[in-house]
Amino acid sequence: MPGRILIVDDDPSMCEMLHDDLTHRGYTVQWKTNANEAFEHLMTEAFDAVVTDLRMPGLNGIDFCHRLAENRPDVPVIVITAFGSLDTAIQAMRAGAYDFVTKPVERDMLAIVIERALQHRSLQEQVRFLKENRVASARFTEFVGQSPAMERLYDQIARIAEQQVPVLITGESGTGKELAAHALHRHSANRTGPFIPVNCAALPPMLLESELFGHVPGAFTDARTERRGLFLAANGGTLFLDEIGEMPLELQPKLLRVLETGVVRPLGDNREIECDVRIIAATNHDLESAVEKGEFREDLFFRVNVVQIDVPPLRARGADVLLLAQHFIEEIAQRNNKPVKGLSPGVAKKLLAYRWPGNVRELKNAMERAMAMTRFEELTVEDLPARIQDYRQSQVVFGGEAPDELLTLEDVQRQYIAYVLETVGGNKSLAARVLGLGRRTLYRMLERWDL
Questions:
Q1: Residue range 310-363, pLDDT digits in tens
Q2: Are 287 and 246 a contacting pair, CB within 8 Å?
Q3: Which of 139, 150, 243, 441 is least surrounded, with the fewest CB atoms within 10 Å of its CB?
Q4: Per the omega criterion (within 30 degrees of 0), is the bond before 104 cis?
């Protein structure tokens, strides 16, 4: 990670040695033999890190660290201390130093410490930037996010919101599909009408049918009064059918007829009642695969999937995870009257590395847990759930360098297909498109490798 480094040491030969080595590694390096001059230099020029000796005449290294921590807390300081002087190194850390190396200086180790310091500074700046720029888009207040993936989502919503066509929202569990449905409704021509959500997986078939289409007295046992149903309740507005892939097969023809004719027939009634409702459906299942298996009607699939919107998983949204984490921290801090301002760079690094299988819902849960555990003004890594603290990013491994350690092409294929499947949340149709394979070809491979 190239950057601008300032070396501070009263020994010119040490300065020259470090200057030459770090310059060779790609850094831009300047050096000073006087700590007071170095401090003035730091006040007028931009540097990404400072490497300083502790024992210097005039302003010593500890006092130098104190002054930098008070005036330039954004610049990490690495101190050089004599071997065995651990107490002095600890004093420097308490004074604000980022890390230390011992004499004689091992140049490769110093380069590693500098790289870590620059990564730390980069994360600090990213967190600060996100705090100051956390409004993603004035158009879509339902969401927090400004990644390219989310900008594409905003653009899709803006283009189709006012088109009175059915929309199918796809995405993994916890990504915010209902928020997307709310955004579509809020920007639609029927925005003044009701927005009514129903979870198709939450009710048994008979109750779901009554809930959607209504009933008249005597339509079934315990049907003592008339019920309008959600289609009629949503008249002039939007009906959001969440988890439509879970709708029982026996109900799907009736839903299809309502979508095609615009009329509803309540259970036990001979009347057909007109209704003007926009349908938005959502699923975290692969409906194309469900159609092939006979678990979802093909004609209904084409009817609800006139326009499809994909809500991206959190792992595809880059630094949005930090923006969302900050949003949740402020929300929880206000609710619980807890003086927590944000997250440390260490936490930011962990959040960016983690895969988030539970998406935004999992992130909110993790922030709730961390806010309950923390004792400081910033969340620390120890406040995070263990699964996030201990997470190690999976990789496709090609084997070692020796011929007998190299993998076969089939082993590499198997690993990469498993990696793609994990990345797309198990969506086989999407995985097949990413891999450039037909779905049937992919299914045969998965069966052969028992994936």
A1: 999 998 888 889 889 988 999 999 999 998 888 888 888 899 889 898 999 999
A2: no
A3: 441
A4: yes
Residue 358, both tokens: 């539970």
Q: Please give the Cα distance from 64 to 6 (Å, whole number).
A: 13
Q: Which of 106, 132, 158 is the last residue of a domain?
A: 132
Q: Give Cα 161 distance to the centre of its chain.
A: 25
Domain containing residue 338 = 317-360+367-388
| 358: exposed, middle or buried (Cβ count in 10 Å: 0-12, 13-18, 19+) | middle
Q: Strands 77-81 and 49-53: what pairing?
A: parallel
**Together in a domain, 325 and 243:** no
Q: What is the CATH number of the domain that holds 40?
A: 3.40.50.2300
Beta bridge partner(s), residue 269: none
Among all chains, which residue has been given the structure tokens 């049907």? Answer: 223
Residues 373 and 417 in one domain: no
Same domain as 178, residue 63 = no
- Ranges assigned E (strand) in 85-211: 99-102, 167-170, 195-199
Distance of alpha carbon 26 from alpha carbon 24, whole angstroms:
5
Provide the edge-to-edge strand list for the sheet that holds 28-32. 28-32, 4-8, 49-53, 77-81, 99-102
Q: How confident is the model at residue 164 (pLDDT cuts 50, 70, 90)?
A: confident
Percent with pLDDT over 70 in the chain: 90
Residues 242 and 302 grouped into a single domain:
yes
Q: What is the mean pLDDT of the chain?
A: 85
φ, ψ at 102 (rounded to 5°): -105, 155
- What pLDDT is recorded for position 136? 43
What is the CATH classification number for the domain harbouring 326?
A: 1.10.8.60
Q: How far apart are CA 287 and CA 430, in angstroms?
A: 11
pLDDT, tens digit (0-9, with 9 covering 90-100), for 373-410: 998 888 999 999 999 998 876 555 555 555 555 667 77
Two structure tokens written together for 19? 């200057």
Please report, for the domain that includes residue 436, its CATH number: 1.10.10.60
Q: Is residue 393 part of a domain?
A: no
Name 56's Cβ contacts closer than 8 Å, sequence gap at least 6: 8, 9, 10, 34, 35, 64
pLDDT tens digit string along 177-233? 999 999 999 999 889 999 999 999 988 887 898 889 887 776 566 666 777 889 999
Q: Beta strand pairing status for 167-170 and 278-283? A: parallel
